[in-house]
Structures are given as C-alpha cells and as structure tokens.
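Model the whole thing, not chain by chain.
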Amino acid sequence: MSFPILSLMLAVPAVAAIACLFLSAPAARLTALAATLIDLALGVVLWTSFDVGGAQWQFVEYAPLFGRFGWALGIDGYALLLIVLSVFLMPICIGASWQAIEKRVPEYMAAFLFTEVLMIGTFAAQDLFLFYIFFEAGLIPMFLIIGIWGGANRIYASYKFFLYTLLGSLLMFIAMLYMSITAGTTSIPALLNYDFPASVQTWLWLAFFASFAVKMPMWPVHTWLPDAHVQAPTAGSVILAGVLLKLGGYGFLRFSLPMFPEASASLVWLVFGLSAVAVIYTSLVALVQSDMKKLIAYSSVAHMAIVTIGLFAFNAQGIEGAMMVMLGHGLVSGALFLCVGVIYDRLHTREISRYGGLAINMPRYAILFLLFTMASIGLPGTSNFVGELLSLMGTYQVSTTIALLCTTGIILGAAYMLYLYRRVVWGEIKSEEVRQMSDLTPRELWLLVPIAAAVLWMGVYPESFLAPMRKDTQILLARIDRAKPAGDSLPTKGTGIVPAAHAETSAHGSAH
Amino acid sequence: MLIPLIVLSVGAVAAGFVFHRWFIDPESAGEFWKGALFFNEHLMHEMHQVPLLVQLAATIVMLSGLLIAYLTYIRSPDAPAKFADTFQPLYRFLLNKWYFDQLYHFLFVRPAFAIGRLLWHRGDEGTIDRFGPNGSAWLVQVGSRAAVRLQTGYVYTYAFVMLIGLTAAITWAIAG
C-alpha cells in the first residue's frame, strides 16, 4: 500500500475547493461535482482494496512534519465505512445544491469541498493533534454554510452551533495535551494500547465526553441541532445529519472506549441514562413539531441515542449495531432532508400543514419518501432495522431496563414518522399551489434513488458492511473486556427442543 | 373476483385433508418440522382426547353463522336494520369497535402530544435554551454593560479602585 490514496482523497477536494474560488458559478458547480465524483471513485477503490480481516491499520502513511507532529494517516474498518459514507453523500449534496443555491455559488462549493476534506481527514487521522485539527476545523465551513446560505434566523442558529461545539472541544483539547505529554506520543494506534491510571481516565473521559456528546448530540446538549437543521440549506442538513453527527459516535469508538476502558465502564450509567431520556424525550418532542426539518432533527437525536447505548454495551452486537445505525441513519436522515428539500424548493415552506395529498400529483416522490419513512422507523429489509436490532440486543445483555426504555423509542418513531407521512403525502390536496407541484425531476431522482438502493442493500445484505468492522470489534473488545460491567439481564442458555425419541418415552406413555 | 374466491374456498375446505399428515399428525409431523417449529407430539395425541362438544365447537359456530347469514341476508334482508334499531346501544358499541380507538386516543395519543408539547416548550426552550446558550449570551451582555460602566476613563476612579485593592491586600496580609 505504498500509493498514498488517503492523501489523494484529501488533495482532490482541497485543490478543487481552491479552484472553485476563482471560477464562475456554472464552472464551480461542475468542478465541485467532478471532484466529489472522483473522490467517490477513489472511495470505491479504497473499499475494494481494503483487506478484510487483514492488518488493523491499512493504507498507512507517515511523514514527519515537526517535533512529534506528523502527517499520519491510516484507516481501520470503522473509518473505512464512515469515509465511504462521506464520499457517497458528497456528490448528492452538490447535486441537491445545483439550483437551490443562487448566490455566492463558488464560495458555497468551496465550503462544501472543504468540509469533505475535513471529514475524510477526521476519519483517516492517526495523530492525535491531526485528528483535533480536522475535527475542529469542520466547524468553520459548516458555520459559514448555515450563516451565509441559511434561512431567516441563520445567524442565531450558526452561532449556537458554533458555541455549543466549541465549548466541548476545548475541554477535549486540554485532555489531549495531557495525554500526549503523559504518554509521550501523539500516535493514536500507540495511545490505543496505553493504560492511563483509572483515576485520571475518568477526567479524560469526561473531557472527551463534553466534546462528543455535543457533536452526537446527546440530551441535554442537543438544542443546537434542530435550529441548525432548520436554518441550514438542504445540502447542509444532509451533510450535518449524514456525516457530522457521526463524528461523535466515531470519537466514542476511537477514543473513549479503547483509551479509557475503566472510565467508560464506570460511567456507563451516565451514557445509558442520558440516552434513555433522549430517546423518549426527543421522540415525544418530534411528535408535536409542525416544521418538517425540525421533526427529522429531533428524530436524529433519538436515533443517535440508540448509537450511544450500543457503543457502551461492551459487546460485539452493541458496537456493530451502533456502527450500523450510524451508517443507516446517515443515509436515511440525509434522504429525508432531501425529501423535505424537494418540496421546499417547490412551495418554499417547511410547514407540514401547508402540504397534503402529494401522493396524487407526486407518485414517484411518494414512493421514495415512503421507503425512507419506513427505513427511519426501522422496518426489516432496511438499513436501520439491522442496526437498531443489534444495538438493542447488545444493550439488553447489559441493562434490560434501558433496552426496554429505548425500545419505546422505536414505537414512538413509528408514530411521528407515519404521522408526518400521513399529513404530507396522504389525504386530499388542500390548495391550488400544492396541486401545481410537479413530480421528481430526473436530477432529483439521481439524488434519491442511489440512497434508496444503498438503504435496501444494507437491509438485505448487511454482511458487506459488517465484515470490514468485525475484526476491529474483536480488537476493541479484547481491549475493553477487562472493564466490562456486569449485566443485569443474566441470560441463561435454553435447554433446546427435547429430542423426539426422549419425549416418546417420558411423556407419551402416560397419555395412552 | 369470483375466481380467486373459488380457488380460496377450495383451499379452505380441502387444505386440512391434504396437509394434516405433514403439519399436525403426531407420527409424521415431527419429522416434517425438524425443530423449525416446536412440535409437541404428546399434545397432538392429547388433542384426540378432548370432549366431543369441543371437537365439534368450530363446526357448530360455522353452521350457526351460516344460518344467521341466510336468515338476515336472504330470507328477510330488513332484519339487520330492525335489530340495530332495537338494540341501539349494543349496535353503537360494536359499530365503534368497542370504542377502542377513542380509548387509545384518550389514553395514549392525547397524553403523548401534551407531554411532547410540554417537553418542547418548557424543557428545550424554557430550560435548556433559556439557561444554556441564551442565558450565557445574556450574561455576557449584562456583564459587558456593567464593565462598560466601570471603565469611566478618569484617572482618579482607577486610582481609587487601586487604593481599595491595596487596602484589602494589606488588611489580608496583616490579618492572615
């Protein structure tokens, strides 16, 4: 693996982003689309040449820069899947902005390409500070995208997003400084096997938690998300829900669990408690929303709580399920925001009550929206089912109570999604302007159909996605097993079916 | 519509004769299911031991249904309306599906919406946002306004503040 494919994947959008700044609007659109498609092709190459079950870290690159700081890249199965998700969603985001963005197009495209660089960098970084730079710098383009191309209340939303996220990240930065000085290395693979004293672990864990919980977002630091989603342009919402929320889950998986296993185990109650509250609380809030984007934003918080419980279940089902929910939610919530964007572009409102009866004049839209609604609920055959089932199964082995509470989230999820779908798509057409709305254009079909295909693929054959992370999960479990908390479900192995011959002699005789 | 119905009715009548050997016969069905379903041979033997009335129950119910259908839809088609008139409350009760939808609406739907609205306005907006981001923003504004008032620009004000500080420091040094 001497070919620096990861650096190339970072370089392509970076160069294109700079080029965009000097181009006209149509040329910038084409450049952005071409660059994201090249990155998608590179992502496919990355996936196909990834050696499943091979070395833990693949495509490793290292170039010392100064002091301990180096250009260290490399991916494992988790990072691979999240990078593939990012490069898959990126061309779709550019396509979704094709007509919706009218002002400052070159700058917009540059911001999006810059976001792509930072997302891939975050997942590929193998150096603690390199990770921090990519992770934190992701705020800048998103702050601009919401603040410049957002809705009416965009300034409030962008500042809220920025301040929330920054506050948590600064605590994480302090923890990183401590870690690099104490351990004497900034290499993430080395830190993964460094044992910090248990008392220090708790503080470090909490500092990282401050950052990742906001990014995730977990209750009660979730209130930036509905505002950010409502104000962001469609593509901004897609990338925010699709990839940026996954940075929190990736952080827990990459740092909190393997680097601080004892602290993770002793603070499981905190994660489980906040997650259980989040699932029920935000699902109920989602139920009463009148703004479509806000509803989907609140549902994202509930889905992310299923991720956190799975991650902290300390078993393979939970962790792999959490990853599957992250991937599935990335596709489904992205697609749902696109579905909102499609009708927003026609009627320029997100108020649910203004719509109704879209199935009559937009049948193709109704079918795709229904598919994503069902996937969001977590129906078998769709991506989210696999993840939610595994995640809840893993959680059940640790805490039956939390598993029970979080399962109500699935029921409430069905309630708010079906209620949304009923009001928007079914029923009678209420106004003349809704009657004028046309069905999906070929461009919009090109955005939604690939996601639909991926959602079904993940639901029908999840093995493609589970295989790359299986070995990483085993490595992670071997690392954290020593701290594994005792579960309260205590499952006992069943006796199985009594063999027919045996039953014949014992019970059958007395019947006659 | 008639042809599918005929096909289905053939199945309804004949399926049992054809498949009982594989599905429920104590001797052969265990072999068929091979543990895919839990098959209790003992229970299947017991099945033949139940009282005659239990064995005939399904047939009796079916025949009485047939009889009622014949009487009310063929013999005297106005009978159902008369029956509904005579037993108004019972008719309403059954027409509204035992009022289960209303019960669910009252028990689950309305509370869920009320709690959701409460959590949204009182929880997210009234507590988290009010004391979190909006509260900190307000605190910064108030704080800087107070700081502005202290920064008068007059040297004697600053000298006075320094004097207070010096006095306090000396007092603390002596007392400590």
